[in-house]
Amino acid sequence: SVDSFVKKITFQHLTRDGLQNIGPTVAILAEAEGLQAHKNAITIRLDKYGY
Fold this sequence. Notes:
The chain has two helices and no strands.
């Protein structure tokens, strides 16, 4: 079907409380998987809100 050729993009929204709850774990997982840019992105957000 046509769905086989369509690129699907997912967007997610995270509240500040959600960021505080899972942010540190996300940073650890990103580093473990070698995703330095993803780790940097979450670390910047954690620092921005003082978590």
